[in-house]
Amino acid sequence: MAGFRLLVGLGNPGSEYENTRHNAGAQWIETLARQSQCSLRTEKKFSGQFGKVYIAGEECYLLIPTTYMNLSGKAVQAVCQFYKIPPEEILVIHDELDIPPGTVKLKRGGGHGGHNGLKDIISKLANNREFGRLRIGIGHPGHASQVANYVLKKAAPDDYTKIEQTIDESLRYVDDIVRGNLNAVMNQLHSFKA
């Protein structure tokens, strides 16, 4: 199975969105960049913060789109075109309402589940859904009408700690994830509970 060359963390730009639930994916990339001593720099042509790292001996690209969440596909498309990266070699890290804080799921392919960032990426990749997703649980507010407000707020301290632990735990497997050994990682990660 192909590994991943482009790791994309979704979020909204600007300090007012820092550490909000919707920025869990961006936070994952920031943590990985710190651990890898990689400095992300703003790249206009990619509409995002961008960096290169070596993971498991492979050159990988890190991207945090600096468009708003619902335009995330623009940045992904730009990097993919520039580096000739097929959708199968993209891993998108994003917040997930359908699983509770402290849990994380990994999969390849699938729909967008109402996530505006994923929706835009799928449309910009000509409806190819075969990219990987690392879904960081943020829990659900209970009613659809509350979702927009909920994802843009900071998580309660207890939940925030769980989200951070989930990020740290999933980053322990980053070599295997990048190599495409998803089943081995799923067995470990899917039983993890912060």
Write the layout of secondary structure elements.
Elements: E1 6-9, H1 24-35, E2 41-43, E3 48-55, E4 58-65, H2 72-83, E5 90-96, E6 104-108, H3 116-124, E7 132-137, H4 147-151, H5 157-171, H6 174-179, H7 182-189
Parallel strand pairs: 1-4, 1-5, 5-7
Antiparallel strand pairs: 2-3, 3-4, 6-7
Describe this structure as you would to a colleague.
The chain has one domain: Rossmann fold, CATH 3.40.50.1470. The two termini are 29 Å apart. With 194 residues, it is an alpha/beta fold. Strands 2-3-4-1-5-7-6 form a 7-stranded mixed β-sheet, sandwiched between helices. Helix content is 35%, strand content 21%. The radius of gyration is 15 Å and the shape is globular. Helix 2 (72-83) packs parallel to helix 3. The protein contains 7 helices and 7 strands.
